[in-house]
Structures are given as C-alpha cells and as structure tokens.
C-alpha cells in the first residue's frame, strides 16, 4: 500500500527517519523563528501566542525601510553645465536650480531642465508679395538662445512656436514693403536688418526669454515660371556694376599718369625757358665783349669768328677736309661711310691718294688761298 493512501497509514518517509519522528520543516515555524530574530535585532519582544501578528508587523517595517531608502535615492538628479532647472512643487513654480547634483522631493517636486547655452536655428521660407506686386520666394534663418528659463517655460504655451510665427510675420511685413529688385540684388542686407528689428519688436511684449543672435538671408528668387527673365535682368545689372567698376579703375590708373606727364611737360617747358633765356643772356654778354674788339680790328675779328664757327660746325661731322698740295682743290674723306662699311664687313680696306678724283671740290678765291685758311684754321685751333 502506498504511503499516501487514505486510511491509517504511517508510511510517510519524512517521519520516523532514523528511529525518530522527523519530518519536513514547518513553514510556520520558519517564519516564526525569522520574526523572533528580526524582533530581537530591533529590540522587540516576542509573544508566545501571536507569532502571525508579530511577523506581519516586522514585514511592514522592513517594507517601510526599503521604501524610504528607495524614495531617498530616487530624489537625486543632475543638472548639466549648460542647463538650468525649473522646480515645480505641486505644479507651481518654486525656483531655479544651478548645474550640479541636486535632490528633490519625489512625487512632490518636478524638475524641467532648460538648455541656456546652445544656439538654436529656426528657418522660415515661402512665397511672398512685394511692394511692386511681384511674387518672390524668400528663405531666411535665425539663430537664437534662451536667456530666461522661467519666461521661456511659462510666458507662453510654446516659446519656439511663438518665435516661429513671429518670424514669419516679420518677414512677410518687410518683404511686403520692399521692391523685388532690392530683394534680389542690392537690398539684401537692408532686408536682413529690417527683419531683425521687426522680429525683436514683435516678441518684446511677450517676454519669451529668448534673444536673437543672428539673422541669415539665405536666398531670394522669383518663381520658376519667370526665373529666366529675372536671371537675365540680374545679369545685366551685375554687368553694369562691373563695367562701372572697371571704368573707375581705369580712371584711377590713367589719371595719375596723365597728371605726371603734364607735370613733366611743365617742368621741361620751364627748364627750356630758363635755358633759352640763359643762352640769350650769354650771347648778349659775348656780343658785348666782342663788339669793342670788332670796332678795333674788324677784319681780324671777322676771321676769328669765321674760324670759330667752322670749327664748331666741323666738330659735329665725320668728314675731314684735306688740302691738296700743289692745287687749288680741297677734298674731303667720307669717314662715316668708310667706318660703316668696315663695321658691316662689306669693305676691308680703302686707300686714298692725292691723285684720287675728289668727291667734292671747293674753288678758292684768288685773294685767299686754301692753304692760308688751313694755316689760320690750324693756328686758331692751336
């Protein structure tokens, strides 16, 4: 018969083991012993008849202790260096905490971290109507940063969305009061500054806790249907500006050179004038010195002037006059041609003798011989 069949069966393997009535440990007894030990640790007293009640109070105490520990550790949090923490106590603003390790009352306080140092981007674009009733697509982007965490969270429902709508309003207002040529070409910087000022004017009453760092005018273009015509117009305007700049550069380059030439010509004219005056004064002084001598000996003075003039004339030429012995003819040697032929290699040597036919002859007058003039010429030079 099996040990666990109904009836009087004492074949339980946990009993009478080793000759003694031994069985499996009783769960109630284990819990009772554990409760006594815990109660002893905390200084409590055990009761003989209330083991279940003692165990329940001990369990609750342990759970409370564990819950307090978990609650204490759950209250620690960290605020990053670039953030500020908004403290809400029962949903109401209680203050702002600085970066670092902090502690809060869990389930009572709530912390909202707000990034205060990062620069955020916000784009805006769309087709807009200009003052001269043209349609243009404008792309713009702003950069902003949070400066007041409380206003950023509580001033409006969504500060970023409010800023987006304000940017769109400011952009359309400025574009609507500007001409299309200014938007596409030379007025872009003015449009950017006007949008910046108008945006700050719009968001100032709302106290969004934001500051506009920069406004970037990214692009402005006409609709695709008329883009080619506007591109041609813009190219023509750019060519006009380029031609004007080139003309101004040419004028700046040529004008100083012209002024320099004018100054040089003026200086040369002044120098020529002074030289002419000085030459004339020198001739006058020379004439005044020669005049008394001419009055004293006219013939001698006339011959001296003639010889001095011939010396000055022949000193500037390469022709040499030769007095032919025994005749009344004088010939000259074309030394310039001879030197030129020798330098070019076409003539190596040429010899001339008194018997050679002269190239040019000069007939002397009977009253004055050639040799006499030559002697006087030589004596004058000496």
Looking at CATH, the homologous superfamily of the domain at 120-222 is Band 7 domain
| Radius of gyration, taken over Cα atoms and rounded to an integer in Å | 62 Å
**Structural class estimated from helices and strands:** alpha+beta
Major beta sheet summary = 3 strands, antiparallel
Principal-axis shape equals: elongated
CATH architecture of the domain at 120-222: 2-Layer Sandwich
Give unreliable regions as ranges: 16-20, 46-52, 346-382
Could you tell me how far the N terminus lies from the C terminus, measured between alpha carbons in angstroms? Answer: 178 Å
- Placed side by side, the strands forming the largest sheet appear as 3-2-5
**CATH topology descriptor of the domain at 120-222:** Tetrahydropterin Synthase, Chain A
Average pLDDT confidence is 77
Helical residue percent band: 40-55%
Tally of helical segments: 10
**How big a fraction of the residues is strand?**
15-25%
Helices and strands, in order, run as: HHEEEEEEEHHHHEHHEEHH
Quantity of strands, as a count = 10
CATH class designation of the domain at 120-222: Alpha Beta
Membrane topology: Single-pass membrane protein
Subcellular location: Membrane
Pfam families: Band_7, HflK_N
Subunit structure: HflC and HflK may interact to form a multimeric complex.
Comma- or semicolon-separated keywords:
disordered C terminus; three-stranded antiparallel sheet; hydrolase; Stomatin_HflK_fam; Tetrahydropterin Synthase, Chain A; 382 residues; alpha+beta; 10 helices; Protein HflK
Structural features, described:
This protein is an alpha+beta fold and 382 residues long. The chain has helices at residues 27-41, 51-74, 149-154, 159-176, 180-184, 188-203, 227-296, 298-314, 335-344, 370-381; strands at residues 76-79, 83-89, 92-97, 100-103, 109-115, 120-129, 135-146, 210-221, 319-323, 330-334. Among the domains are: 22-74; 76-115, no CATH class; 120-222, Band 7 domain (Tetrahydropterin Synthase, Chain A, 2-Layer Sandwich); 319-381, no CATH class. It contains 10 helices and 10 strands. The strands form 4 sheets. A 3-stranded antiparallel beta sheet has the order 3-2-5, with no helix packed on it. The chain starts with 26 loop residues before the first helix and ends with a helix. Mean pLDDT is 77; it is low at 16-20, 46-52 and 346-382.
